[in-house]
TrEMBL record:
Protein name: Acyl-coenzyme A thioesterase THEM4
Alphabetical GO biological process terms: fatty acid metabolic process
Localization, UniProt: Cell projection, Ruffle membrane; Cytoplasm; Membrane
MF GO annotations: hydrolase activity
Stretches assigned to the Thioesterase domain: 68-129
Species whose genome carries this gene: Streptomyces coryli
InterPro entries assigned: HotDog_dom_sf, THEM4/THEM5_acyl-CoA_thioest, Thioestr_dom
Keywords tagged on the record: Apoptosis, Cell membrane, Cell projection, Cytoplasm, Fatty acid metabolism, Hydrolase, Lipid metabolism, Membrane, Transit peptide
SUPFAM superfamilies attached to this UniProt entry: Thioesterase/thiol ester dehydrase-isomerase
EC number: 3.1.2.2
Length: 187
């Protein structure tokens, strides 16, 4: 993805989770990180140094595209989710505007994908970030990589656009409201 000019380096929020801390799901029904999705990715992201995260995702039978191999869209979802979790460290709510994925190696079922992501720069509401997914370990061979542009939004983005049924359930859940509002305390 062509990098924008005049990017500012990202600033880790003072209340961001400490390096090594698990970030936890942002929404229980999220396909990427939620515990409530049987065939979801159940991706668990952990805060790193600066504005970076690491995450792991194990490819299951439900994630196949070709026999015994992960579907590319599922791998893109794992990268998207990992990149999205960087927003916990900025304490900013943001959605993916653009995601560019390179599929470098096939990823077999039962493989654990070791992901890492970092924010490379910020300009206004635009957050530029990059991620890799490796095989065999955190320093293993690169199987997938992505560059992304996230756009900062208000929590109202979800309330306005989400289906009423799910928004009502989320707003009736005090834990969910707390998680969403925690992002709004921006300096
Ligand atoms: C209380 C209950 C609440 C419940 C909520 C629950 C939880 C909330 C908490 C956290 C959850 C947060 C996120 C989810 C996390 C992880 C999941 C993974 C992430 C995703 O999976 S998330 C889903 C997929 N995602 C979308 O569903 C976005 C659909 N989309 C839109 O909603 C709009 O499109 C939007 C908002 C993106 C922008 O719209 P907009 O009107 O606000 O702003 P605008 O268009 O002016 O763009 C501003 C500047 O970005 C540039 N720009 C925009 N898009 C670009 C592109 N594609 N390429 C290059 N540049 C682009 C413009 O060129 C301009 O640049 P400039 O300022 O320089 O002119």
């Amino acid at each position: 993805m062509s990098a924008s000019t005049n990017l500012k380096p990202p600033e880790r929020h003072p209340d961001a989770p400490a390096p090594g801390e698990l970030l936890g799901p942002h929404y229980d029904e999220c396909f990427g990180c939620g515990g409530g999705q049987e065939h979801g990715l159940h991706l668990a992201a952990r805060a790193g140094e600066g504005v970076s995260v690491t995450a792991e995702f194990t490819v299951k039978k439900a994630h196949q595209g070709a026999p015994g191999l992960a579907h590319g869209g599922v791998l893109a979802s794992a990268l998207d989710e990992t990149l999205g979790s960087l927003n916990w460290l900025l304490r900013t709510i943001a959605v993916t505007g653009r995601l560019e994925v390179d599929f470098v190696r096939p990823v077999p079922v039962d493989t654990k994908l070791h992901l890492d992501a970092k924010v490379t720069g910020v300009k206004g509401r635009k957050i530029y970030s990059t991620a890799t997914g490796r095989l065999g370990g955190p320093d293993g061979e690169i199987a997938v990589k992505a560059d992304a542009l996230f756009i900062e939004v208000k929590v109202d983005h979800f309330i306005e656009h989400g289906r009423d049924e799910e928004i009502k359930a989320a707003m009736d859940d005090p834990d969910q409201v707390r998680r969403a509002r925690a992002f709004e305390v921006n300096p």
